[in-house]
């Protein structure tokens, strides 16, 4: 059913996004946010004050609804009218892999007597503080040499 054939009561039962879908479907062209919402306000008999008060929430609802796509020219259109191309940027992933590999490399302490070695539990505060102390000692020994 066309929007112009619907009564005001029928229009009021529809959500803004449903009305937007119908407007874009009937016009068969993309439109910007203010133009679409102005058409909706005209259909529902809203004043300029109501238009100003509600346009922000309307924009948010458009961004959430998967039926619509925001084009480069800041106009909305139906997702059905556009094919979506997914581009995967491998360069960014490679940089993250390098950083993660560098983070995994740890300096090994010089030599530790067999008596000082115990099982290290990273959740145990005593064990983690021992590791920090060993690292500090190892750093100081390197500076002295």
From TrEMBL:
Residues 89-145 are annotated as: Disordered. Signal peptide: none annotated. Keywords: DNA-directed RNA polymerase, Nucleotidyltransferase, Transcription, Transferase. GO terms for molecular function: nucleotidyltransferase activity. InterPro entries: Asxl_HARE-HTH, RNAP_delta_N_dom_sf, RpoE. GO terms for biological process: DNA-templated transcription; regulation of DNA-templated transcription. GO terms for cellular component: DNA-directed RNA polymerase complex. Residues 14-81 form the HTH HARE-type domain. NCBIfam families: RNAP_delt_lowGC. Belongs to the RpoE family. This is RNAP delta factor. The gene is rpoE.
């Amino acid at each position: 059913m066309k929007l112009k054939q619907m009564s005001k009561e029928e229009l009021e039962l529809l959500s803004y996004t449903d009305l937007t879908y119908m407007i874009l479907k009937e016009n068969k062209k993309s439109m910007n946010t203010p133009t679409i919402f102005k058409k909706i306000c005209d259909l529902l008999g809203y004043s300029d004050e109501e238009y100003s008060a509600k346009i922000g929430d309307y924009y948010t609802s458009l961004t959430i609804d998967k039926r619509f796509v925001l084009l480069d020219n800041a106009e909305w259109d139906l997702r059905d009218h556009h094919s979506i191309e997914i581009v995967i940027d491998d360069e960014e992933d490679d940089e993250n892999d390098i950083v993660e590999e560098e983070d995994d490399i740890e300096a090994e302490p010089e030599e530790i007597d067999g008596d000082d070695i115990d099982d290290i539990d990273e959740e145990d505060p005593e064990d983690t503080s021992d590791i920090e102390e060993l690292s500090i000692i190892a750093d100081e020994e390197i500076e002295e040499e």
